[in-house]
Amino acid sequence: MAETGPSVFSEVELHTFCSDVFTMLGVPEEDALTAASVLVLSDLRGIDSHGVARLPAYVQMLQAGRINPRPNVRTIRETPSTATVDGDNGLGLVVGPQANRVAMEKAEQAGSGWVTVRNSNHYGIAGGYVMEAAERGLIGWSMTNTTRMVAPLFGAERMLGTNPIAVAFPAGEEPPVVIDMATTAAAFGKVEMARRKGEQIPPGWALGGDGLGTTDPVEMMASGALLPLGSTRELGGHKGYALAAMVDLLCGPLAGANWGPFTPAFTLQYADPTRSVGEGLGHLFGALQVEAFLDRDEFGRQVDDWIRTMRGTRPAPGTSGPLIPGDPERLAEADRRQNGIPLIGPVVQELEEVARQTGVSLR
Amino acid sequence: MAETGPSVFSEVELHTFCSDVFTMLGVPEEDALTAASVLVLSDLRGIDSHGVARLPAYVQMLQAGRINPRPNVRTIRETPSTATVDGDNGLGLVVGPQANRVAMEKAEQAGSGWVTVRNSNHYGIAGGYVMEAAERGLIGWSMTNTTRMVAPLFGAERMLGTNPIAVAFPAGEEPPVVIDMATTAAAFGKVEMARRKGEQIPPGWALGGDGLGTTDPVEMMASGALLPLGSTRELGGHKGYALAAMVDLLCGPLAGANWGPFTPAFTLQYADPTRSVGEGLGHLFGALQVEAFLDRDEFGRQVDDWIRTMRGTRPAPGTSGPLIPGDPERLAEADRRQNGIPLIGPVVQELEEVARQTGVSLR
Fold it and tell me: How far apart are CA B342 and CA B332, in angstroms?
């Protein structure tokens, strides 16, 4: 398929389009605005794979009745510093922000707040939740399990999701430190991109259907699996697998959600899991109140000093030196807020198809 | 130096030796027993680098007056689910277990417990603390920052420690899942072992003094640095760096301890940091009460199912299939409890030197 160059949209255009589409599909207006904000934030941060490019998949799931547009999200168990939230099969983009709020409120009251979520769906970028915590002066955590895509070390098939971990730390004068990472060697979006361009992928990213390493993105996507962070035993692949396991155990068994190979399919194209071991997809949100541990000002000064110290590291030859986690996304956000969000041709075409189906105009 | 074969010691022999040595150096008996237990557990679990092999370093530090043998470990700030503990420059092996207990008690009372520790020293294996939590039916976390040894991605010098993360999940009938991992591609002990054997190390483990990759363990140890998990940008080295940063920010700035390149030297051989930015070394202990989220029995059944499902993964060619995090250490422990703990010649010689200095007989 011939690809046209990117079209540039403003944040407002995309936000309005997404929220109008969600509303048209039965999502209450306030929830539709929230869900649109989560999606567009991803595009603003330069994480194109998790932004409006995913709207068509959410639309499909809503149209097929696989996601509940009007969930009754409720806390079904709680202690002073924890809660279990049932998302009532709502959009993860709606359930996630509500559950995250519970975690932040608990942290403000009891020092820390930890909230598991069951019966949810894909919740957008993990980093958005923890940025909200950092804006409130809290240290935030966010994790989710996801559709199976990753082989455990020494495994030959997809058993775990890309299971991201996000953590953010508020600073003083410096911008917050924002970590947002899949527990794989490389993001699935990079494999998709290589396929689109007809390029090979580096060794260490993926297995083929035979359980051996592959550099062919088509083979990975058809029958293979992503490798955990660390890639091989020698380079610590058991550690990436352990991190993915941690996320899965927290978001699955502890939350009462499905886990491992039984997590629900993200889109209608994927096969349904062979059995159900819980309700929907699961998340974990955590927050720590800084003042619970030491004075907020002192913490801010120390984090500023930490950031500046790391920036002052002697650079490796051929590099400009270490970045601070969150730097690339923050720079992308500054650029895109000013210059707009570029969308590649195929994404625009899919959004235009959504526009035709729903009667909401793209712009 | 010619090396003799390993000598085998019983758990009791090593525990008695270590606790007697600590007592001789002014550590109160109860603390000496605790510290010895932490060290010997590491040997039992097969993590030889963090066990009695480190006793000489602790002895040096105590003899030099660099560690306080009789610390007044106290909570200096707290909320229902958090605390900040000041270790009074005691042995990490003594401070760690006390602070971990505070975290577990908070979790039992408020659903979760999160405790930072400042003014401590190296605390042994991270995994021991979370195993204790799992035995109490809690999900446990443990992290510590450590002496600088690791370059951030795109850095050419040691700025962070190997900063381990440990997490354990209690199961039902199955043994607990125990994750205990440095946030580096490979453990420093493996580099030491390669040097001892005169072997090269694989690409992706380390940088030389010039900030470029090296396969020479001597160069890494003399002037280089370890690489974070993921090793290179292409394979996700920014993620390992981000994890090391997370541990450092929690155990340093949040705890009021030193951080990054300013963490205290582990032994007298290392140079002291150029400035002080906090007190001693820092740790973080966390615990979640399972019942706070769902019924303990249901959780146990799900974790058992999870473990068996992962064990049932189709194996990658040439492997026996995925392990569960903690498997290798559990098997080592079963073996060593029965057959004793083998110590290599150089370690025995160092312990004999400690025996001579302190007048405590090795056996």
Answer: 11
The whole-angstrom distance between A55's CA and the closest CA on chain B is: 27
Q: Is residue B208 part of a domain?
A: no
Structural domain tally of chain B? 2
In A80-224, where do the E strands start and end? 82-86, 112-120, 138-144, 165-169, 177-181, 206-207, 213-214
Report the distance separating Cα B282 and Cα B152, nearest Å: 19
Helix axes B11-24, B55-63, angle to 10 degrees: 10
Q: What is the rounded distance in angstroms from the CA atom of residue A129 to the CA atom of residue A145?
A: 15
Residues from chain A that touch B306, judged by Cβ atoms under 8 A, are 248-249, 252-253, 259-260
Interface contact flag, B248 A167, Cβ < 8 Å: no
* pTM greater than 0.80: yes
Q: Do B77 and A294 touch (CB under 8 A)?
A: yes
Residue with tokens 């900063």: B163
pLDDT of residue B274: 87
Alpha-carbon distances of A91 from A20, A25, A65, A270, B270, rounded to whole Å: 15, 12, 12, 18, 53
Question: pLDDT value at position A37?
Answer: 98
Whether B323 has its CB under 8 Å from any CB of chain A: the answer is: yes
Q: Which long-range contacts (CB under 8 A, 24 or more apart) does B236-240 make?
A: B236/A181, B236/A184, B236/A185, B236/A186, B236/A229, B236/A230, B236/A240, B237/B153, B238/A181, B238/A323, B238/A325, B238/B153, B239/A181, B239/A183, B239/A229, B240/A229, B240/A236, B240/B153, B240/B183, B240/B184, B240/B185
A3 and A53 belong to one structural domain? yes
For helices B126-135 and B29-44, the axis angle rounded to 10 degrees is 100
Identify whether the C-beta of residue B44 lies closer than 8 Å to the C-beta of residue B332: yes
Residues A204, A261, single domain; the answer is: no
Q: Is the pLDDT of residue A92 over 50?
A: yes
Domain region containing B38: 1-70+340-363
Residue B336 near residue B11, CB atoms below 8 Å: yes
**Average model confidence (pLDDT) for chain B?**
96
Q: How many CB atoms lie within 10 A of CB A62?
A: 20
Min Cα–Cα distance to chain A from B322, Å: 5
Burial B88-110 (b: 16+ CB within 10 A, else e): bbbbbbbbbbbbbbbbbebbbeb
Looking only at Cα atoms, what is the longest distance across chain B?
58
Q: Which residue of A has its CA nearest to B278?
A: A302
A309/B114 touch (CB, cutoff 8 Å), yes or no: no
**Which parts of chain B sit beneath pLDDT 50?**
1-3
Question: SS3 for B116?
Answer: strand
Q: Report yes or no on A199 lying in a domain.
A: yes
Q: Does residue A56 sit in the same domain as residue A15?
A: yes
When the pLDDT of each residue in chain A is averaged and rounded to a whole number, the result is: 96
Indicate the DSSP class of residue B41. Answer: H
CA distance B246 to A169: 9
The answer to whether residue B335 is domain-embedded is: no
